[in-house]
Design goal:
By secondary structure, the chain is α/β, with parallel strands linked by helices. β3 (92-98), α6 (100-117) and β4 (121-126) form a beta-alpha-beta unit. It folds into 3 domains: 6-83, Orthogonal Bundle (Arc Repressor Mutant, subunit A), CATH 1.10.10.10; 91-159 and 262-297, D-Maltodextrin-Binding Protein, domain 2; 162-261, Periplasmic binding protein-like II (D-Maltodextrin-Binding Protein, domain 2, 3-Layer(aba) Sandwich), CATH 3.40.190. It contains 11 helices and 10 strands. It is 44% helix and 21% strand.
Amino acid sequence: MHLPSIQALRALDGLARLGSMLRASQEMNLTPSAISHQLRSLEADLGQQLVERDGKGVVLTAFGRRYAEQVGKALSLIQQAGAGSEQQELSGGLSISCVPGFAIFWLCNYLEEFRSLYPKINLTISTPHRLDDVHNRGADLFIAFGTGNWPGMKAELLAEIEFAPYCCPRMAQERGGQIRLDDVDDMPLLHMGNYDDWTRWFAACGLVGNAQRGIVFSNMYLVLSATVSGLGIAIGDNLTCRAALRQGQLIRPFEQSIRSIASYYLVSEPDAMERPICKVFRDWLTAKLAELRPEMEGAPA
């Protein structure tokens, strides 16, 4: 087997990170058919099927997901090696507006890695009042939660979100180690902002109980703090709950989940990525999310 082309590997990496041929083609300034050609060429080189069709388009096979994860890491290393001393010379200020949940429960856990790569970049992190707000004139980049529609701005999908119930282990232990669907009627519910979270989940599961009860909090930090403390059971997502799940502070008692109508996006002015500082943050952020995506998608129930 000869060494696959970098272009073909980038096409696979783009499809894995962005989730569609169209988005991968836009990132690489190619047509979707050109991306498809690159993937077929890579499959021929490897002798393995990387993608398969489903009702909505194409998805990666199990082998394709594993291979894409390793390719993403390799491309990140190549990029870092190519930057060489230029990485260390990048300096200046970078202001990022980031929704609170992503900032507290994901970004802050990994920023030390970015700081070690770019020690001369001075970061400023702020949080907006609205999850879809991208109007802070002092910010260079925005990590926003919305539907992708920000007129006049460039938006790149970072992560799609699944919502599911989470609670502290003690709540399951008090019920013999397992929580059943019909137990939810007797459990205190915790909400963020309004009652829509549990109302949607009840409807998706066919439950007829009262979802409009319990405590409503103004932000996800308060919701998760209350959940970890055992105050009740809350609807959380597979990204912001990931650290608490790994540390054993939370469990996910049910497999049933609902797809969020909104997602996390990296939003910027159209020409922002011409600034090297913005570009290296974008490249680091998307590579880190791609590295962790298989773990988030396989979060234990």
